[in-house]
Every structure is written in C-alpha cells, then in structure tokens.
Write a structure and sequence with these properties.
The chain is mostly beta strands. The protein has helices spanning 197-202, 252-255, 452-455, 460-464; strands at 4-9, 12-17, 31-36, 42-45, 56-59, 70-75, 78-83, 89-91, 104-106, 118-122, 130-134, 140-143, 152-157, 167-173, 212-216, 219-222, 225-227, 232-236, 244-248, 263-265, 271-279, 295-297, 300-310, 316-318, 323-327, 330-333, 338-340, 343-347, 350-353, 360-364, 374-377, 380-383, 390-394, 400-404, 407-408, 430-434. The strands form 7 sheets. The protein has a 15-stranded parallel β-sheet that branches. A 7-stranded parallel β-sheet has the order 17-20-22-24-27-30-33. It is globular. Mean pLDDT is 91; it is low at 1-23.
C-alpha cells in the first residue's frame, strides 16, 4: 500500500509519498532504482563499494539494497544521481566522449561537476521510460549490448531510443511531484505570505505539536533566524541548495562566538532541507574575534538533508544539548569549523577545509560522561591543499570524534592528523578512526583505530538513539 500524506500550511500543499511507489517521472529529491528496458535488471555499484572509481553494473533488482538506490538532485536544468549506499555520484570517467565507456561512481563534491550531470528525456518508444543523457559527453546511459546477464557493464553510448537505453525510475521515497509551484510561505520578493524566514517561524503557534512545512522561494535572505518552534521544516524550493541562501555576517567581535550565528535551531524535531546557511563575514573588516558561526544547534532531534553550511572559523556549533543527523550535506570552513559538546552524525556528507594553510576540522568539547560526540560516517573529507588538514583537536579534554568508513583525501596531514589544543592533549581525548580509505587514511601510531568488535558500538544508530530510540538513519 502507498502511504500519502498531505501537509497544508497557509495555502501551501506538499505531497509526501511512502516507499513502494510505481515507476514515476524523476524529480529532484526522489530516490529510485533504475531498471533497464532490455533486461529488467537495476543499476548497481559493483560489490556495493564505497570507493571512488567503483564501476557500475546491472544486477537483479532489490529495492532494499542501498547500492541500487539513487537520489536525483537538480543542478540547473540537469541532475546528479547519488548512490544512497556510498554517497557518490554517477560519473563519466575523465569526461570521456567515447561510446562504450563504462560508467563509475565518484565523489559528488558540491554537485557542479559536469561529468556527473544528466538530463532525463521521456522515451517516445516506451511509455514510462526515460533516456539518461550526459551533459559532458552527450551520450546516453546504456546496458551494454542489451544483455540480460548479471554484472553486465553500464556504459555510455551514442543516444538511440532503444530498449538498452530506456530506463524505468522506480521510486522508493521523496516527492512524487516537483516542489510546490503555488504561493510559497516565504519569498523575499513579496510573492509569498511572508518576506522573511523569521516572520514565517513567528507565525507558527508556540505550542505547535505537528509538522509545519515552511517553503522558501529561491533568493537571498539576509537575516538572523531562530527556529524556536518544534516540528518545523524549512524547505528551499530551488533546483539546488545553493538557490536558497540564509546569510548574515555577525562575528565574535560584535556578538561573542555563540551569539554570532546566522541561524539558531533551538526547538526540538526541526528539519531543514535544500537550502544554504552562511556566515559571510569578511575577517579583515574587524580587529579581532574572527569566529563567526553560520549555524548553531541547541536542540534535540534536528535533521539536515541536502543543506550547505558555509563559513570560515567556527562555522557549525553543536552545543551540549544538541542531537542531530546530517545527510547528503556540505560543510566548509578554516579553523575548528565543526565544534561543541553535542552529538551529531554526518552521513554521506562532504567536509571541506578551504584554507590553503589547512587547519583543524573539529574542536570537540564532549563531556566525560557522554559516550558519543561527532561521527563522520561514509563521508568525504577534502581540502584546498595536501598534507595540511587536521581531523581535529580537543577543545575540552574528553572530546569524542570518530571518522568511520569515510574517504580522507590527501589534504589530511597523515603523519599527525590529531593535534593538541591549549593544555588539552589529543592523546587523552577520544579520537578514533575505523576503516577509512583514500590518500589521507594512513594508519600509524598517531591514529587510534577501532577494532571490528568495538565498531559495533559506534554506529550512527548508537550515536543518536538516546533514551528515546531516535533512529533517523534507518
């Protein structure tokens, strides 16, 4: 049975559909299996690999297998297709224009890589099926030779509306139609019910006990936002998170570090999706106090999906009371740009150290009595330069940070990826790694590793369960 929920707020209707939907027109935010018109088999990452360069093949369809699940994210008039299991995107190796090239998965970055962008065109020969064309090569995704064999390569070929290039998008989750095109809740140009995000939040009853969706039209919203009402969803309506920007430029010099935020989430069960939160402070404009928070989390059970959090020093503050799950998102900064004493899981996210001289990604302040702090799970850690980035340093002595099954690029200072902070020694903090890969994932005596048996207690579910069994990670 298909579960359908209608949410109505101030004249805005959004449609959410549960798992098990029939074949559908692909839309932004939808998660799909892609079945070949010639074989009926589905596009799969060979061996369920999480590695860059893993090749795409076809196997018997299994909707529960995350290595067969693909999320469509709009990038202008095109889309990326990110594998749910690995977080990596369907990619044309080397931007090849050679027909027959086998496709691979590769880190998505900020979603703007041309060899990872695709357009979907309805087949004129087979109802309900689509041709998937590469923006960079002009070739179409195909099941090589139309074979019915398992593990047959998925390639790009000169486009033709034939069965091996016709794909059925079987939807598993996400919207069944594009984001609402009617009156948005918020629009800075006056075409919505409110001109600012905060005005829409203020209109939500203080005792709100059910989900309220605040839709935000693409644009720039230069304001300070406090989501202080529970069960609120902030949903950007643009084709990509970058299209809807909430931004300000306060700093520690004027407001103190914790008060410098652009956005504060202070109420429980808040969700944000498909938008950007930024602090665009010009550090040269102030004499001191360059810390400038883009997003401050104080609340329990926050979920961020397809959100970009941008800043320099102290970008994302995760306070002690916070418990948060971040999926398919992007965080960038320069120094201690993910910091605090709360509990947070980054799942299939991109973390970017943008300073050419590098710096520490995390500055944890986890209390000694708290088992879990920061978990980077199946994420991608990159930076502007090689061998300069630190995984973190302990703001408080017992900071807890784990990088698990993630790809660490050459930006990591491999010989000494953890550093001291003031009188706090990194060796006394709870800094850990487990089964990371990539050029920056070297194992040595300065890089404590979890054993397989220990790792069973350091999953996203364990981090987030708390006393109420919260499990947004599934």
């Amino acid at each position: 049975m298909i579960a359908v929920v209608l949410t109505v707020l101030a004249g805005v209707v959004t449609l959410t559909a549960g798992p098990g939907l029939a074949a559908a027109a692909p839309v932004a935010g939808g998660v799909y299996t892609l079945a070949s018109g010639s074989s009926g088999k589905c596009v799969d990452v060979a061996g369920a690999s999480s590695a860059d360069g893993a090749l795409l093949v076809q196997v018997a369809c299994n909707a529960a297998a995350t290595d067969q699940q693909w999320k469509a994210t709009a990038q202008g008039s095109a889309f990326t297709l990110a594998n749910v299991g690995s977080g990596r995107c369907v990619d044309v190796p080397g931007s090849s224009t050679v027909s027959g090239t086998q496709l691979q998965q590769w880190g998505c970055g900020d979603g703007t890589k041309p060899p990872q962008q695709w357009t979907f065109a309805p087949s004129s020969a087979a109802s309900g099926k689509y041709l998937v064309r590469s923006v960079v090569s002009g070739l179409c995704v195909a099941n090589r030779d139309g074979s019915t064999a398992g593990n047959n390569p998925i390639v790009e070929e000169t486009c033709s509306d034939v069965a091996r290039m016709q794909w059925t998008f079987n939807q598993l989750s996400g919207p069944t139609t594009p984001p609402p095109t009617g009156t948005p809740t918020v629009a800075s140009d006056g075409t919505g019910r409110y001109r600012t995000v905060q005005a829409a939040i203020d209109a939500v009853p203080s005792g709100n006990g059910s989900r309220v969706v605040i839709t935000i039209k693409p644009g720039i919203y230069r304001e300070i936002v406090n989501v202080n009402k529970p069960y609120v969803t902030l949903q950007g309506l643009g084709a990509a998170p970058s299209n809807t920007l909430i931004v300000n430029n306060r700093s520690a010099y004027t407001s103190g570090t914790s008060g410098s935020y652009t956005a504060l989430i202070s109420a429980r069960d808040v969700t944000a999706t498909n938008l950007t939160i930024s602090n665009d402070l010009d550090e040269n404009s102030i004499p001191s106090g360059q810390q400038a928070v883009a997003l401050r989390l104080d609340s329990d059970r926050t979920t961020l999906t397809s959100v970009r959090v941008l800043g320099d020093q102290d970008t994302l503050l995760v306070n002690d009371s916070a418990r948060a799950y971040v999926k398919n998102s992007y965080v960038e900064g320069t120094v201690d740009f993910i910091f605090g004493g709360g509990t947070i899981v980054f799942h299939s996210c991109d973390i970017y150290e943008k300073r050419s001289t590098g710096g520490p990604i995390t500055a944890g302040s986890t209390d000694a009595g708290k088992l879990y702090g920061f978990l980077f799970y199946k994420s991608r850690i990159t930076g502007a330069t090689n061998n300069t980035t630190s995984l973190g340093r302990p703001w408080y002595p017992d900071a807890q940070v784990l990088y698990r099954e993630s790809t660490l690029s050459a930006t990591i200072a491999t010989a000494q990826p953890w550093t001291n902070m003031s009188s706090n020694s990194w060796q006394n903090a709870r800094f850990l790694e487990y089964r990371n890969t990539g050029a920056g994932a070297t194992v040595n005596s300065n890089r404590p590793q979890l054993s397989d048996s220990q790792a069973a207690n350091y999953t996203p579910q364990k981090y987030l369960a708390g006393s109420d069994g919260w499990n947004p990670a599934g």
